[in-house]
Write a structure and sequence with these properties.
The chain is an alpha/beta fold. It has helices spanning 17-33, 48-54, 73-96, 110-118, 134-139, 180-187, 206-221, 235-241, 259-265, 275-284, 300-309, 322-334, 337-349, 355-368, and strands at 7-12, 36-43, 58-62, 100-103, 123-127, 145-148, 162-164, 195-198, 225-229, 250-253, 268-271, 288-290, 315-316. Strand 1 (7-12), helix 1 and strand 2 form a beta-alpha-beta unit. The radius of gyration is 21 Å and the shape is globular.
Length: 369
């Protein structure tokens, strides 16, 4: 790294944690391996405007939002927002003078990546999902490289531009398998007992929480330890609704920061099927039951989950059946050692532990070309 030229890279995108955390992982890896100055560009008012500075990077916000599925005032403003954001992107590029641009998906990435390609600046896209997003599909003809997490993405993108890298995830997840004893101590659990980890994202998932309210008495009676992340929106309500249950072996938490310990603890996981969650679960190598969110663009979470179900690497319950089926499905799986082994073995095969390194290498190759 010593004596290497300082590269200037803009990373653009956001809107959700699924776009922001991979972007920060790429930035951290670039900084670690090379002399790099990094600028983030996101959507003004969205979560990246706080999460990126918390990670130590500068960010500029664009006046941009996604298209709504119905006729709204926001949709009428959409063309004006796009033009405004592209013009601002040209100014950012002129001022920062990047050697390369990385788009991590979401509507926040489109104006900046488009402006960069118009100025012949090398651009790379990172597509996290098995179903390509609209912004990335539109940009794919203009960029030089597209890093993807799933095979078969040539149905969305030019095949010659594809690199199968996987999704960037936090490096501490890699060592989560060795942390069962430490994690059990952290949560006051027994390392000898079966533990269920329930994840609904940072804000929470209404269906998963409702299914847990229904299933919790079954898990308690079966002696299963439960670590349940309700999400910020539902935490108080779930505490209230479980106050009359015997919660000695249940931990209800709003948010889990030490995900490596949570995965280390788990014998079975219940989760939404966001791209980032799936990548982490593949690295953690845990049997998982997905309950895909139906409230996402083009139902991409169901497609993400099915990509694993088809390889017998996970199980899935549709959102509308979760309340009725979750308790029985988990009980059956947690008691079936051989089934758990099959799921563990198959999900580990899909892990891409070097994803962040590979994406970083592609960025540097673009600059050097």
């Amino acid at each position: 790294m010593t004596g290497e030229k300082t590269y200037r890279v803009i990373i653009s995108g956001g809107g959700t944690g699924g776009h922001i955390y991979p972007a920060i992982a790429i930035a951290n890896n670039l900084k670690e391996k090379h002399n790099v100055e990094i600028l983030f560009v996101g959507a003004a008012g969205k979560m990246e405007m706080s999460k990126v500075p918390e990670a130590g990077y500068e960010i500029i916000g664009l006046w941009i939002s996604g298209l709504q599925r119905k006729i709204t005032f926001q949709n009428l403003l959409f063309p004006i927002k796009v033009i405004s954001s592209i013009l601002k992107s040209y100014k950012i590029i002129k001022s920062f003078k990047p050697d390369a641009v990385v788009g991590v998906g979401g509507y926040a990435s489109a104006p900046l990546v488009y402006a960069a390609t118009q100025k012949n600046i090398p651009a790379l896209l990172q597509e996290q999902n098995s179903q390509a997003g609209l912004a990335n599909k539109w940009l794919s003809k203009k960029v030089s490289k597209i890093c993807v997490a799933y095979s078969g993405m040539e149905k969305y993108f030019p095949e010659e531009k594809l690199v199968l890298t996987g999704n960037p995830v936090r490096s501490d997840i890699l060592n989560s398998l060795d942390k069962k004893v430490k994690a059990s101590s952290r949560y006051g659990f027994s390392a000898q007992k079966n533990t269920l980890l329930v994840l609904g994202g940072s804000l929470g998932a209404r269906t998963i929480n409702e299914a847990m309210i229904d299933s919790l008495p079954v898990f308690i009676e079966a002696g299963i330890q439960v670590l349940w992340q309700t999400g910020k929106l539902y935490y108080d309500e779930m505490l209230l609704r479980t106050r009359n249950l015997d919660m000695k072996e249940v931990r209800v938490v709003e948010f889990i920061r030490e995900m490596d310990l949570a995965y280390g603890l788990a014998d079975v996981v219940v989760s939404r099927a966001g791209a980032l969650s799936i990548s982490e679960l593949c690295l953690a190598g845990k049997p998982v039951v997905f309950i895909p969110s139906p409230n996402v663009a083009e139902d991409h979470q169901t497609k993400n989950a099915m990509a694993l179900v088809e390889q017998d690497a996970a199980q899935m319950i549709p959102d509308k059946e979760a309340v009725e089926k979750l308790g029985d499905e988990i009980l059956k799986l947690i008691r079936n050692g051989s089934r758990k082994e099959v799921l563990e073995k198959n999900i580990k095969k899909l892990a891409k532990p070097n994803a962040t390194d590979e994406i970083t290498n592609e960025v540097i190759k673009l600059i050097a070309a």
